[in-house]
Amino acid sequence: MQDARGGRRGAQGRTRPDPHRQHVARRHLGGGPARRKPHSPRSLGRRPSRGPAGGSRDRSRIRRARGDHALGARRGPAPEDRAARVSPDERIVGWLRKASGPLSGEELARRLGCSRAAVWKRIAALRELGYGIAGRRPGGYALRTVPDRLGPAELAPHLRGAWRQVEWHEETDSTQRVARDRARAGAPEGTVVIAERQTAGRGRLGRSWHSPGGLNLYCSIVLRPSLAPGAVPQLALVAGIAAAAAIAEEIGRRPAIKWPNDVLVDGRKVVGIITEMECELERVAHVILGIGVNLNAPRSAFPPELRRKATSLRLATGRRVDRAAFTGRLLAALEARYGRFVRGGFASMRAEWEAHSSLTGADVRVVSFEGEVAGRVLGVDTDGALRVRRRGGNVVRILAGEVTVRHGYGR
Q1: Which one, 97, 275, 297, 304, has least CB within 10 Å?
Q2: pTM of the full predicted structure?
Q3: What was the pLDDT predicted at 300?
């Protein structure tokens, strides 16, 4: 398919070598990264107050302007507080989802504290977004269908962790670029940027990431780990474990991971991962973790040159994937494993990665910056390095490179 998903390098600074994928590193003279005021879409409802970088005052909401939506915050508010801070659209959709029957415009107006005319306008706006809302007098409004999109209202029922600040785009050039801009402006850890379609999605080593609209998942997550820059590349391996776990729950069988971070189903790629880092001296300012998952793409959606290498979960199972439910499952798996990694390092997750490995015991050829290595894969080390035994018997550790299995792609 593709190889990962990406953004663009910052205009300043130098690039630090990345063992597993490309990333960006910036050094600043006297201080942190320049702050740039982010684009602020017009709010549909009450505009949330902006708190400090930690996001403690930023609560769940929907924002819409030029196709952008957002649902926040970094830490979920108390149940009694959250209802007062989400947008009218999200609240309407939530009430209609839970209702055992139609809800009248009068009842919705009472709950929202607005006029029936305002409710009618909100219903009309939701219908434009693809919600199938039936309404007739005197019965009221009923939610019949929801659009197959990853907007805030669709994701809200599936978000279970603390990563609740989600910014949604109908189309953007790259979620990596958007997330990087948000990170530089102070977005809290766990901010998620999602797009239905990317026009310039890119992966590691400058490869493109094929991003057809309305079929798959393209997301980037802002992380602010307390790690040494040299440990950041291991995040891609951690993300591979999380993606494999989410996929296993979806399809009922274990996918494979091809070092360092390609997730395979039936020997074909379904997930690509990229990390991009910005740091100041030896302190990590932020990491942008990009993940692309082929969910519902048909064979015709792949370019001819990718059809033998890539697949989707729909092609693998013969059924359509609920994209919103899968996204919630993936974010929960990522958040849990990210926490374990920050606390205990990759060594604490090595066994789980090995359980998914498609390369252990395989004869491979690895092309790296240091040359070419041929041999048999023994596994990964505690820092994520690939361990390969050459024909002569000596074992080498490979931190970066492109792996080719001698008899196919994966095993």
Answers
A1: 304
A2: 0.69
A3: 87
